[in-house]
Batch of 4 targets.
Target 1
Amino acid sequence: MALAEPGARGRLLRWPRLLLFGDSITEYSFQENGWGAYLAERLVRKCDVVNRGISGYNTRWAKLILPRLITESADGVVAVTIFFGANDSALKELNPKQHVPLEEYAANLKSMVQYLKAVDISADRIILITPPPLQESAWEKACLAKGDKLNRCNATTGQYAQACVQVARECSTDVLDLWTLMQKNQDFSSYLSDGLHLSAKGNSFVAAQLWSRLENKLSALPSLLPYWRDVDHTNPEASLL
């Protein structure tokens, strides 16, 4: 049987998009039991969850590439997460390539939020995420295994987290303060696999916290295409075109 003529195929289906923008903690979020994979599962047939995590990146580099990810035509972008700071907060004397000074980090975040607003992504659709706390002894072991010295510290990471929260306040966006929330439990090491990146428990924690902020924003999204039991099998064109 020949396919229907192009003009008879109905409107092009355009899936809404949730963009996850960040460093390795975002890039790895689509692995098994990752927080990005959790969001994709919750939003299946409602929204594409697009992973734009780039391992090792900081906000200095991120602000340069954001306009290449979301152009002036931002139609269909229903929400954006911006999750940087774990690399920016690296100690300058030990990791100058990734380090970004605190004031510049805040300015870069603000610049990215302002760009998103300029392409009609409103503040209520933007979520900033602070870096998680750093478990120094575990991360030191990871550094030593690579022949490096401990190149981050939790107190410094906390300063970057506070700056992220302040930017969200000034820009009227939502914020997920992982640095504070994870340390409400005195031993937060179980949230981290190597002192820096998320463990399975940490991924579950981020997924739950982030979903609580996204659910209301995305609750109105309809399911795309009818449930299979609702398709008229005698005349599928009537249901699907």
Target 2
Amino acid sequence: MLFAAERLMTSCHLSIDLVIGDVAITQGKSYWACCVDPSSYLVKVGVGLESKLQEWFQVPQDVVSPRYDPDSGHDSGAEDTTVDAPPPYAFLTIGMGKILLSHGSALTSRDPNGCTVPLPPRIGICLDYEQGKVSFYDAVSFRELWECGVDCSGPICPAFCFIGGGALHLQELVANKQERKVTIGNLAKLD
């Protein structure tokens, strides 16, 4: 199921809820952490260009068909024009107490393919705006889980996508270190 989550936006009829941070990042390095409830169905944690996040989740009705294939099927090369450009968003996919990692992941896990690792108690996200890079960490051991490029040509927002219900606790980086509970879907209402 985790492998299918990357195509979930165009091939599934589950409820999808998007929470976008209310503060956009336009410079420097930013770090925050969250705890994802291990019983969450699927949660995507990451960042994205403010202008592209809403667009990404506004999928036309005819695209929601499981038969939809974003590839045109011909080899015109038109699909390859943006291969070198960083994507406008980067998400870590979490579900069933595990994290799905890209094949290019930095973490060497017990799994020989490096595809999934157990969900740590807390996930840290570090955005380096000038470098156009986002890194995801086990925020307890500070071990890097995954790193990738992201388009930082405009304001970047933290974003959380809940697919089929889920919950997380967002750790605000303030002096009192209070945690705010964010829940979506079948578990509870958004605080």
Target 3
Amino acid sequence: MANKGPAYGMSRDVQSKIEKKYDDELEERLVEWIVAQCGAAVGRPERGRLGFQVWLKNGIVLSRLVNSLYPDGSKPVKIPDTPPTMVFKQMEQIAQFLKAAEDYGVVKTDVFQTVDLFEAKDMAAVQRTLMALGSLAVTKNDGHYHGDPNWFMKKAQEHKREFTESQLKEGKNVIGLQMGSNKGASQAGMSYGRPRQIIS
């Protein structure tokens, strides 16, 4: 990775707008959930965007989080015995978390890019991904979610309806309201005003 100097002009404005999207209250809630989900062994980050980024940067905490949402026999991410220290290994660990999150059901548009976390380019995107993962875990309600269910919104679920063949046939006989009705309609009694007077 190339060393980056300070940003100027428009790129600095863009970066400051991205940084303003980061939510400190949401950070606290996400830290509480991760600790509840993974156990106290993951530790706690220093408060603030940078502390949160450093805590998640090597990908181990994220991998433990996504693994905790699966039953014991089927953990999707392999976690090394010692945390990776080489940059590409850390980025690879983050990429494994992202793939596992997508497999779990997180929509591709809610998944952050590896550099968003690793270089702290967009920590708000990291928060969005974790929120989406938490919402899915609460919605699935399969017993693997730990923590307060009110921390996340439940996602809308499909409500499939089944119709019998006779119900479908009855539906063909009904005239929808958009088609209108002609019962009782006639032009009797309609007047269009007075006829035009031609004066010569």
Target 4
Amino acid sequence: MGEGETDSPPAAKKGAEDDEEDDFGYRLFPDRNKKPQSFLFRSLFTFHNKCQLMLRMTLEMNPYARLLLEALKQSGCTVFNDRHFSCENCDGCVSGGFDAATSQIVLCQNNIRQQSHMNRVVTHELIHAFDHCRAHVDWFKNVKHLACSEIRAANLSGDCTLMNEIARFKFGLKRHHQTCVRDRAIRSILAVRKISKETAEKAVDEVFDACFNDLEPFGRIPHCRADAKRAYRDFQNRDRYTANL
């Protein structure tokens, strides 16, 4: 994604005090607290229609997303399009978020305009959903837990591929991927937590090595679509090898 945009980590439960909601990022997702709109209204709303079409394309065709959907299903957390995804209007600085209170991925229909962008946002948020499914993540009180999932999402979603970094006019050779992952994890935390930059940096640095090297469910860092396809094939073959033993 371009500068000024970020994928948001989980938002807080509804019904919290206003200042608490602000701490956990609900201010970035104003439609979370509104009444659901009628199907007719949403169908006629161009952004919503386009968002739904791009989402379907991602879930059916993108190897990153398909691998994560299968991994979630195998972990006992089957994802359903209508239940677990919601296209909504968001604050101008975010592209998506994972709402741990409802286990729902929010896609910012007013900020996602291209299929490649949708692919990255869905993948990023599905990684949060996978972490939520497989581990007891304390999204709201333990910033290290949040930092770990943000590191994994930046590392494995394609956020930091060479082409994306060039598009952001960021260049570098030595450990550039690690630097990108660290920077984007810090930015995502700061987008929805009222903490200092120093606190966010400390949390990221303390868990960086362990979380950067946690490559589940991909088994590798997918630096491009071809890598993701290979990872998806390997993931599908895991159970076949075990069954033959």
